[in-house]
Amino acid sequence: MMQKRLWLMGLGTALALQPAAAQTKKAPTPKPKTVVATKPAATGAKLVETVVRKPGALTIPYSKYVLPNGLTVIVTEDHSDPLVHVDVTYHVGSAREQIGKSGFAHFFEHMMFQGSDHVGDQQHFKLVTAAGGTLNGSTNQDRTNYYETVPSNQVETAMWLEADRMGFLLDAVSQKKFEIQRSTVKNERGQNYDNRPYGLASEYVAKTLYPYGHPYSWLTIGYLKDLDASNVNDLKNFFLRWYGPNNATLTVGGDVKTADVIKYAEKYFGPIKRGPPCKANTCPRPC
């Protein structure tokens, strides 16, 4: 129950931090969820690296921490503008996919914006934009990242939103949302590759450089036949395999205090359970 209470507290904090106009909107009602009572996990962060600014050197100072659940947290302070950038990078991209299941990493990037157990459909966008921020995500062969740039007094909101979808996304993944986003991804492939002059050039280059079966031989958008053959359970299993805190790096930079960032990281990300072990992806050299 401790983990559930932390997320409900976070929801209250996120709404309280919104501008007055945003507070007039009715907050999404969390769905009931059965939580098995367990011993609260340790959430204390361990400092593992510090880089300081050196005279005459182009150095970005930062502090790196690791939570007990394996999440890496990097904080860099820059008080030149009252803005903060929050980024969560998952160390999974199209190179982690299997033959016949291409496009899953990019597909799941779309699903990450479709709500969670505590945030309604499209509410992630609305909460961030109402706070005066921007957000997006991207996928390549080796990583998928999600980020928000917000006013510095909204950093807790952004961190809670990222933690919420890391820990409570699957309850909101439905067959209807799956079908909508599959259609969106297929249209994206048609617009950016299949129906664009020279749009398939990069696909042919990848096939030429890398032999069949090499994880870099297909594009992150995937093949239409693989997207058509996929189902919602395939996508859920992809999330469970790769979207654990031990396979992610949280980076926060801007007008923040390191102590505050670590406090929020411990509060919201700390209770999330570690996922399956993730080894570095070693790809064979192309012929």
Can you walk through the features of this model?
The chain is built from ten helices and seven strands. It is of the alpha+beta class. It has one domain (2-269): 2-Layer Sandwich (Cytochrome Bc1 Complex, Chain A, domain 1). The protein has a seven-stranded mixed sheet, with helices on one face. Helix 1 packs antiparallel against helix 5, helix 3 (104-111) packs across helix 6 and helix 5 (155-168) runs parallel beside helix 10 (258-269). The longest helix is centred in the middle third of the chain and has 20 residues, at 175-194. The termini are far apart. Residues 19-40 have low confidence and may be disordered.
Average of per-residue pLDDT values: 87
How many β-strands, per DSSP?
A: 7
Overall, the morphology is globular
What characterizes the major β-sheet?
7 strands, mixed
Any idea what the CATH superfamily is called? Metalloenzyme, LuxS/M16 peptidase-like
Tell me the series of helices and strands, N- to C-terminal.
HHEEEEHHEEHHHHHEH
Report the uncertain regions: 19-40
**CATH class categorisation:** Alpha Beta
Number of domains: 1
Q: Strand portion, in percent?
A: 15-25%
Tell me the distance between the termini.
53 Å
- Specify the helix fraction band: 25-40%
Q: Which architecture does the CATH hierarchy give at level 2?
A: 2-Layer Sandwich
